[in-house]
Design a protein that fits this description.
The structure is a homodimer of 322-residue chains. By secondary structure, chain A is an alpha/beta fold. Chain A contains 10 helices and 13 strands. Chain A has 2 domains: 132 residues, ATPase, nucleotide binding domain (Nucleotidyltransferase, domain 5, 2-Layer Sandwich); 164 residues, Nucleotidyltransferase, domain 5, CATH 3.30.420.40.
Amino acid sequence: MTSSAAPAPPLALGIDFGGTSVKLGVCQGADLLQKAEPIPTKQFSGAKALLPEIEQTIAQLREKHPGIAAIGAGLPGFVNWETGRVHALTNVDGWEGINLKEELTASTGLPTVAENDANAMTYAEWRYGAGQGRDYLLAMTLGTGVGGGLVLGGELYRGATFGAGEIGQISIDYQGRVGGHGNFGALERYVGNGPFTDLAIEHYQAANQPQTAEACTPALVAQRAKEGDPIALGVWREVGQRLAIGLANVMWVLNLDCVVIGGGMAKADEILLGPLREHLESQMDPSFTQRLKIVHARFGNEAGIIGAAALAVDECLPARQS
Amino acid sequence: MTSSAAPAPPLALGIDFGGTSVKLGVCQGADLLQKAEPIPTKQFSGAKALLPEIEQTIAQLREKHPGIAAIGAGLPGFVNWETGRVHALTNVDGWEGINLKEELTASTGLPTVAENDANAMTYAEWRYGAGQGRDYLLAMTLGTGVGGGLVLGGELYRGATFGAGEIGQISIDYQGRVGGHGNFGALERYVGNGPFTDLAIEHYQAANQPQTAEACTPALVAQRAKEGDPIALGVWREVGQRLAIGLANVMWVLNLDCVVIGGGMAKADEILLGPLREHLESQMDPSFTQRLKIVHARFGNEAGIIGAAALAVDECLPARQS
């Protein structure tokens, strides 16, 4: 399933439905050949108004790239992968019950897949990214929220009702902070951007070197940590330890061999990954950690487009698959 | 894959390697036709001495049941399911690196599978037990320890190094009690037999009705709860809530449609399962819990034998599979 010795993969169009914009791009394997101008979601009142705009952009991209053979769309919600029906789209109105797969297949004549956006990102990292060659993989994004997706036994894992991979919701404290679903101790309340800044303020306060919230973003604290600031290093160590407990929970249950971490906070790289690995190893049997690779994601904001396109190729064009 | 309208499944021999004894039985689907006298593990010094004894018992059972067509063995440790090699057998000495699959195949001439014992139990509950018809299943045992196994997408899930399903080790408190692997907040330190008794003593103490540890076993507290004792009911409610957090962690990640609970503590049945379901539902999005079935295991101590035998039939005799 690697592309190294294989002929160039076919062209596919990837679509990433975000809360603020819809991004489209023409992909060939790991390469994003061309990106279209993003379509601002909020300027259109729901699916009915947005779809023609998307279809027009698709038509423009196909004019330039007539070889486009399939379309993949990543969506921020539950997607019934078998039927293409979309449920509970986060931050985007008017999509409930829409069958995007059927709509786009009908209007473009191209085979189409619709998939959860975290799953699309996961697929990109497994198929062409930092998780290539590993078949038991969690890919996660660390940012305002914490999301993720799974490849198990070399296949994208979706779960009984297409909701799998909600790593940000797992509890690391059964009596802890209340999360968005009334759940106690949700991981994203301990390692997301907001909690990171709160923790950094606390650490600097405790060291009698108070800092503002503006000075305590993950990016700025990472910069100070790289310059050797011991307080900044301590903040990242504590966040790494919290994250390790969340990941250990997944590891004990799934015995993975790869964790790919992306999103804004992952830019701290070894400042975060070092303490994370160390704490995870101190908490688990070596048989679980010896083969485990914890790495920075290869793809950034484009992972959703690339993954959706790759899925479209692999699911819709089996004859051409390497 | 159900046996209802199918012809009677072939006979298979199931073996359950426990810490104190090796149990053998002749199975036909869900039915345990005959059990052999258990072989006490500790009377034999390791694999070399124990194997001939097992082989003799197998020969005796085959004399009575000449139709036995395959052998399945469940072992308390990591089993490389592809090669049959056994690693890190818990509580049993002298098995490191033994290839039980090859040994038994050679001595009996029958196709053999070796599998982790929790996986064998899980397979029994999925194939013939309380989880029949559900393809995203966690089966767990609640006793002195807490163990489990997974069926995902209709297949036994083993993980990258055959260690998956260690539900008892997942953390419900990142700063909590230290478990057997140096890990903080391991679920089995909150819901196992010992922690249950500790919690019951606390509850009765707090109500000024002190009880001894002997009076606070799960079985006795369940009996009092069934008789309406509000303190006993409160103990089970708290244990159910702790367990719910552990299960929610698995649900968020895997989006299962069935949890089967066995082991001594599961005998409390609805006294435990009621609060467990209630707390789980209060902590999760309905899309995760609507289709979720949480049920008492069908098989007791015999789950390991039945599951190992069923696996042997399904893995070794594909032509006869229903």
